[in-house]
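INFO batch 0412 | record 1 of 1 | parsing
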Amino acid sequence: MTRFTTTVFACLLLIAFNFSARAEDPKVQMLSANQVAKLDLNGKWSGKRMQYTADKKAYAEIFQYEFDLKQDGDIITGTSTIISANGDFADMKLEGVLIGNKLQFREYAVQNAIRPQGKIWCFKSGELSFARSGDNISLLGATSSYMEIYNYPCSGGETNLSKVDNSSNIAALSSLAASTVETTAESKMNIDVYPNPFVDNANISYSLEKDAKVKVGVYDLEGKMITSLFEGSQNAGSYNLNFNAAKFSTMSGIYIVKLSVDADVYSTQMVQMR
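INFO prediction complete | emitting tokens
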């Protein structure tokens, strides 16, 4: 996404939005972790990247946006391409990991780009959910964006991509009854990180509705655990944990908090500014 150092693009397209309403469309089925595990994610995904205005109440600009993904189990690598209405573009490297029914991803290097004077491209990162509409598979969600250096936040936005050639998933999709929508644990648990982005320390909070066996860890975008914050039994209630990034100064600054509650898995991203 484009970050403007002083002013935004002229002639901005202001479009009111309601992303939650689209996600609740009865024709759209949000997929569970078990359903996502059956999918072949390799190949091109194409759609739109909608950039927020500063107050996040409308879209400032809509970009053409594409992923070209390679899947190795839960690990995702590949490239992204973002193109503005006037033809400015950036090709970026990306990496990610599947956790539950989410793709946690980040862009981390610009391979090729046209950069208008006074503007830079921001790296997108965050979590995208998988959705099905008929025989189509989509990746969608509100995701953050950060400057190429220091991880300073940009305005953020929403991503909505569809798999260009979904023939490899037709058999898997046909096995899912159209009337069956699995209730996903991921949609019921909030993991709050404050501040996010953070500088040195981040506070991680969550609430349990019942007693459970709990694991909380911090992972990188290759799915490797950086540190364990808690493992054991917890009673129903609210909990707060602290993550100190001082020991991990060589990391990218993009971290995943993974929370396991009994058999259910949840995740969210946190970003360190540098």
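INFO post-check: The longest helix spans residues 19-23.
INFO record closed
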